[in-house]
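Reviewer comment 2.1 asked that we show a complete input and output for one of the modelled complexes. We chose the zinc ion case, as it is the one discussed in the main text.
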Amino acid sequence: MGRQFNEFKASELYCPKCGSSQPVRERASALPGSKAVDLLCFRCATVVGQHTVIDHSLPGKLATLVGKLLK
Ligand SMILES: [Zn+2]
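Response of the prediction step:
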Protein backbone atom coordinates (compact mmCIF):
# COMPACT_ATOMS: atom_id res chain seq x y z
CA MET A 1 0.00 0.00 0.00
CA GLY A 2 1.34 3.41 -0.90
CA ARG A 3 0.91 5.06 2.44
CA GLN A 4 4.44 5.66 3.49
CA PHE A 5 4.29 9.39 3.98
CA ASN A 6 1.76 9.79 6.71
CA GLU A 7 3.85 12.10 8.82
CA PHE A 8 1.79 14.12 11.18
CA LYS A 9 2.43 17.80 10.67
CA ALA A 10 0.90 20.33 12.96
CA SER A 11 1.34 23.74 11.48
CA GLU A 12 -0.28 25.70 14.27
CA LEU A 13 -1.25 24.93 17.82
CA TYR A 14 -2.82 26.93 20.57
CA CYS A 15 -0.24 28.35 22.93
CA PRO A 16 -1.60 29.17 26.38
CA LYS A 17 1.26 31.56 27.01
CA CYS A 18 0.71 33.59 23.85
CA GLY A 19 -3.04 33.17 24.16
CA SER A 20 -3.47 32.33 20.51
CA SER A 21 -2.56 29.82 17.87
CA GLN A 22 1.07 29.97 16.95
CA PRO A 23 3.20 28.25 14.38
CA VAL A 24 5.12 25.42 15.92
CA ARG A 25 8.50 23.97 15.31
CA GLU A 26 9.50 20.44 16.01
CA ARG A 27 12.28 19.33 18.24
CA ALA A 28 13.16 15.73 18.76
CA SER A 29 12.93 14.73 22.34
CA ALA A 30 16.35 14.26 23.86
CA LEU A 31 15.31 11.27 25.87
CA PRO A 32 17.28 8.20 24.85
CA GLY A 33 15.14 5.65 23.12
CA SER A 34 12.26 8.07 22.85
CA LYS A 35 10.73 8.77 19.49
CA ALA A 36 8.62 11.61 20.73
CA VAL A 37 8.84 14.98 19.08
CA ASP A 38 8.16 18.10 21.06
CA LEU A 39 6.15 20.82 19.40
CA LEU A 40 7.38 24.21 20.50
CA CYS A 41 5.62 27.50 20.12
CA PHE A 42 7.54 29.41 17.51
CA ARG A 43 7.29 32.63 19.48
CA CYS A 44 7.99 31.70 23.08
CA ALA A 45 9.34 28.16 22.75
CA THR A 46 6.80 26.75 25.16
CA VAL A 47 6.07 23.10 24.56
CA VAL A 48 2.52 23.17 23.28
CA GLY A 49 2.28 19.62 22.13
CA GLN A 50 4.00 16.40 21.48
CA HIS A 51 3.59 13.63 19.06
CA THR A 52 5.15 10.29 18.65
CA VAL A 53 6.95 9.51 15.47
CA ILE A 54 5.48 6.47 13.85
CA ASP A 55 7.78 3.58 14.40
CA HIS A 56 9.86 3.13 11.31
CA SER A 57 11.53 0.00 12.54
CA LEU A 58 9.49 -2.37 10.48
CA PRO A 59 11.66 -5.46 10.93
CA GLY A 60 9.69 -6.51 13.97
CA LYS A 61 6.38 -6.34 12.16
CA LEU A 62 7.80 -7.92 9.05
CA ALA A 63 9.25 -10.74 11.05
CA THR A 64 5.84 -11.42 12.54
CA LEU A 65 4.25 -11.31 9.14
CA VAL A 66 6.81 -13.57 7.55
CA GLY A 67 6.50 -15.91 10.50
CA LYS A 68 2.78 -16.19 9.84
CA LEU A 69 3.24 -16.71 6.12
CA LEU A 70 5.76 -19.44 6.63
CA LYS A 71 3.55 -21.44 8.94
ZN1 LIG B 1 3.79 30.91 22.73
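The chain has a mean pLDDT of 77. We note this here for comparison with the apo prediction described in Section 3.2.
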